[in-house]
Amino acid sequence: MTPLKENFRQFLERLRASNELIDIHQAVDIRHIATLVDQSDKALFFHKVIGYDIPVVSGIMRSRERVMMSMGCDEYGQIEQRLRHGIDNPIASRYVETAAHKQVIMTGSEVDLFKLPIPMSSIYDGGPMITAGVVMSSDPEYGLNSGCYRFMVKEKNLTGIDIVTPNNMRLYAQRAFEEGRSCPISISIGTHPIEMMGANFRAPIGVDEMGITGGIRGAAVELAQCQTVDLPCVADAEIVLEGEILPTGWTHPEGRFGEFTRLMGGLHWNPIVRINAVTMRKDPIYYALHMPWENTWMAAPTRYASIRAALKNAGVQVKDINVTLGGCAFWHAIISIRKQAGEGKNALLAALSVLDLKHVVVVDDDIDVFNAMDVEWAIATRVQGDKDVIIIPGARAKPLDPSLAVMPPGIVPTGAKVGIDATIGEGIPKERFERIAYAYADKAKIEDYKKGRADPEDLTMLTTEQDIKQLAKKILDVITDKPLYYTAVAEHFKAYSFQAIARALGQLHAQGDLWQDARGQLCLKSSPFAAKAPQKSQ
């Protein structure tokens, strides 16, 4: 795996050079930024944000192409390979003494979050939200943890932290709250997307996500020590916030905010964070992650890696996986497998155990998991609801699922997981699923006929009864030893007109010689291959 050693600014330059980033140099009202990003097919760099000294960039991972670029990949599927490499080959982080984000240091009363150009997004937002921070925290037992969370700015040095969903950060905060102490955190804003990808991977508790990030990069992530909390932060960050989750519990309202579901989230109850220090470069760039698509494109590869690992552990051979955008890249997966008996159900159970996956469809390896019509066709033709649909009630659910009943604050919701085994059932003849394949599709191309192609007309035309009988005898000789499909007979005697062949076969049928085998191929009625009519029930 080729190491990727660029930083945030170098990635922006690469986007710019590839015409994937547009520079907006004229003055822009910060209230307009989110909607402009939503309308743009490129990332946007706002150099002059009215009322602020710091420029804003947004939309840098808002497309498949830009996510591939961020991971140094030529194909989207290679992102999963990079992630898998990082998980299997972590590289410990390297601490550095100096960091560019320490060029400006503000502590205590100097801290003023309102100076940061944090855009509004939706008309229903509860306030400005910091959306692109790599958050690090530590627990006395489990060690360093990294993740990405949202912070709604409430006062110049106070935010909330959105940790409603059960995860390691919530556990760390809960343990600190129960002990009556604060939970220190660092928030690194303006990091390379690889740091965000690694932080977003839900690693088992006690596993350092920055080690996985180093494995993804192929080089150690450089960390720097914070000024006011005993924690590291990403050394190459543009801006770092140092703070602590106060032991208030989940008691303060936060939100609403647009979610990965493409819906507005409800009002959440969350802890309060006090920011004790802000460190930044002399000329920082503020990165505003744009919901939902930047979050969606970044999250999907982590799901692929987790699903594939679960299926491997279950001994299932996987062909393809599609974590669909229609399923918000969190809840739906379509998996094609090289099936052995019973493995459709095994694959379902393994996949449904992964993270917050809600609905999984397993198909055979002849189905294109990226073609919705193909998948629906498999469900329509291969599923019997009483045998092939699995419902698992009472499973851990994601609080952002709008179909769940409203729960009291602090209660983790449960919901149903559904699996559909759309593989061909055991004991079902495979020939039932032979797709229509038109004859001569490899030779007859419409584009050639549009350009004037004409087929040869010098075919042998048989007009007399005697000639037809002679051709019928030749066909009989061909199908005596081996049954052939009608089209194969037509191809074998392609020197004759099709009408002549049809008449000759009609002659054999009239003589009582022509029959078909169980697969519909032409053969002799007296042949051992000849199909037998089913016996009538008495």
Write the layout of secondary structure elements.
Elements lengths: L7 H10 L3 E8 L4 H7 L3 E7 L6 E3 L5 H7 L6 H12 L5 E2 L8 E4 L21 E11 L3 E13 L2 E3 L7 H11 L4 E7 L3 H8 L8 H9 L4 E4 L6 E3 L4 E7 L6 E3 L13 E3 L1 E9 L5 E3 L4 H21 L4 E6 L8 E6 L5 H10 L6 E6 L7 H11 L2 H4 E8 L17 E9 L23 H5 L14 H17 L4 H7 L5 H14 L2 E3 L5 E3 L14
Parallel strand pairs: 1-2, 3-16, 4-10, 18-19, 19-21
Antiparallel strand pairs: 2-3, 5-15, 6-7, 6-9, 7-8, 8-15, 9-12, 10-11, 12-15, 13-14, 17-18, 20-21, 22-23
Helix pairs in contact: 4-7, 4-8, 6-7, 13-15
Q: Which band does the percent of strand residues land in?
A: 15-25%
- Point out poorly predicted stretches: none
Domain module tally: 3
Count of separate DSSP helical elements: 15
The counted number of beta strands is: 23
Largest sheet, spatial ordering of strands: 6-7-8-15-12-9
Major β-sheet annotation: 6 strands, antiparallel, barrel
CATH superfamily of the largest domain: Electron Transport, Fmn-binding Protein, Chain A
From the spread of the alpha carbons, the general shape counts as elongated
Question: What would your notes on this structure say?
Answer:
The chain is of the alpha+beta class and 538 residues long. The protein has three domains: 91-292, Pnp Oxidase, Chain A; 314-431, UbiD C-terminal domain-like; 446-524, Arc Repressor Mutant, subunit A (Orthogonal Bundle). Helix content is 28%, strand content 24%. The chain has 15 helices and 23 strands. The protein has helices at residues 8-17, 33-39, 64-70, 77-88, 168-178, 193-200, 209-217, 293-313, 343-352, 372-382, 385-388, 446-450, 465-481, 486-492, 498-511; strands at residues 21-28, 43-49, 56-58, 94-95, 104-107, 129-139, 143-155, 158-160, 183-189, 222-225, 232-234, 239-245, 252-254, 268-270, 272-280, 286-288, 318-323, 332-337, 359-364, 389-396, 414-422, 514-516, 522-524. The strands form six sheets. It has a six-stranded antiparallel β-barrel. Strands 17-18-19-21-20 form a five-stranded mixed β-sheet. Helix 4 (77-88) packs across helix 7 (209-217). It is elongated, with a radius of gyration of 32 Å. The protein starts with 7 loop residues before the first helix and ends in a 14-residue tail after the last strand. The model has no long low-confidence stretch (mean pLDDT 91).
